[in-house]
Amino acid sequence: MNILVLNGSPKGEYSITLQTVRFLELLHPEHHFEILHVGQRIKALERDFSPACTALERADLLLFSYPVYTFIAPYQLHRFIELLKDSGISLAGRFATQLTTSKHFYDVTAHRYIQDNCQDLGMKFIRGLSADMDDLTTEKGQQEAKDFFRHVCWSMEQDYYEPLPVPAPKTTPVPVEVPSGTETVFSAPPAGISHTTTAKTGDVVIVTDCRPEDSQLQDMITRFQAVLPLKTRVINIREYPFIGGCLGCFNCAADGKCIYRDGFDEFLRSRIQTAQAIVYAFTISDHSMGAAFKLYDDRQFCNGHRTVVMGMPVGYLVSGSYSREFNLQMIIEGRAQVGSNFLAGVATDEKDPNGEIDRMAQTLTYALEHTYQPPQNFYGIGGMKIFRDLIWLMQGMMRADHKFYKAHGQYDFPQKNRGTMLKMYLVGSLLANPKLKAKIGNKMNEGMIAPYKKVLDKVSK
């Protein structure tokens, strides 16, 4: 069997994920593994995609190998998928699967992103392996890798794969009404890469990847600016002179300084993170915000795992069939939850764009006026617990993260709450004794709600 490994790591041969692939290659000399370093060679593939086409045509199985970056695959692999779809090569009926390494922070959304795009191409997708970064160094991890590959081979023999989704019906975006007399954001080239409306007070930054031909998204931005009673700035990331995508080099781990010298780290901190709120505006592309936004997101790793804009409300202006993009919905909510950002809304152009845009503008204004910040749900709490444990272990290297986590009380280890643990031992002992349990009766429930009754009594007085 010819297995084409699409290595999405920008580190190439030094990819941790690739080592698991090498492990499988050594165990299975009967199969031919061809490795294409799409992450490391993305700029060359942008110039000439033909080497990739040649390799794709002779593959029986496509194995996507990559580390999870910011909820999805690295920008470089993101861009490769764009090039693959634009190439016109037919991969319908080919088998595909994936292998990732991470600390399991939203690995599910990364895996679904690859699956959705493979199924767009009519490929027979087999569920992949999500391994911890250190799994290959353990016997358990090695066995899981063996079991994964055996399952892939068996699935191919049986012709078993994930069912292809029902094609989405073609929909036409509902036109957005721009209030008369409103200035069009993209009517003239902006100074630098920022356009500012000056008639209002406040500071809300709109980050977009809007192209001149994206008239629908332009109208959504313009209407939002018109109805929001606050001053706005538009920053188009397509116009920023990025040198390249995040390399995963950890040069920024100690002091937050990116190894690239394109100034994005300082631009991010001085022009975007200083705003009162951020609104992201994009057209759905390949089940995501698109490669331009993925480049922007990955380069934000100069902030490490620090939730530097916690408390800042966020909103989204989305052109496209957002209601069908369940994975993208999870990513958007998860980003807000992990960052402790109130999600003021996601306004789309599917049904009632004018009403949705107006409601989001009002909600964002309310959140700013009342500093509204609800508690995190599972997406936020679960994600931050993974980061908490990771940074605690790697504090010697990720010094900027460690300093931030200490300063903001994010090392909330439950095992440090000795008082509660002792109480639970006492309660457990009582519950384990049938006689005492019967004697206590309903006093257990009364005791559990006693602290809450004190709060209610205080309010009633």
Question: Could you characterize the architecture of this molecule?
Answer:
The protein has 461 residues and is an alpha/beta fold. The chain has 16 helices and 12 strands. The protein has helices spanning 16-27, 42-47, 50-57, 75-87, 107-120, 139-158, 215-227, 264-272, 291-299, 326-338, 353-370, 378-393, 399-407, 418-432, 434-440, 443-460; strands spanning 2-7, 32-36, 61-67, 95-102, 124-125, 129-132, 194-196, 204-208, 232-236, 277-283, 314-319, 343-348. Strands 1, 2, 3, 4, 5 and 6 form a 6-stranded parallel sheet that branches. Strand 8, helix 7 (215-227) and strand 9 form a beta-alpha-beta unit. The longest helix has 20 residues, at 139-158. The chain is globular. Residues 186-192 have low confidence and may be disordered.
Brief write-up:
This protein has helices at 16-27, 42-47, 50-57, 75-87, 107-120, 139-158, 215-227, 264-272, 291-299, 326-338, 353-370, 378-393, 399-407, 418-432, 434-440, 443-460, and strands at 2-7, 32-36, 61-67, 95-102, 124-125, 129-132, 194-196, 204-208, 232-236, 277-283, 314-319, 343-348.
Tell me about the biggest sheet? 6 strands, parallel
Summed over residues and divided by their number, the pLDDT gives a mean of 92
Q: Which term fits the overall shape? A: globular
Give the terminus-to-terminus CA distance.
77 Å
Query: Which percent range describes the beta-strand content?
Result: 5-15%
User: How many beta-strand segments?
Assistant: 12
Q: Using the CA coordinates, give the radius of gyration.
A: 25 Å
What fraction, in percent, of the residue positions are helical? 40-55%
- Report the order of strands and helices: EHEHHEHEHEEHEEHEHEHEHEHHHHHH
Q: Which structural class is indicated by helix and strand composition?
A: alpha/beta
Assembly annotation:
single chain
Give me the number of helical elements: 16
List low-confidence stretches.
Answer: 186-192
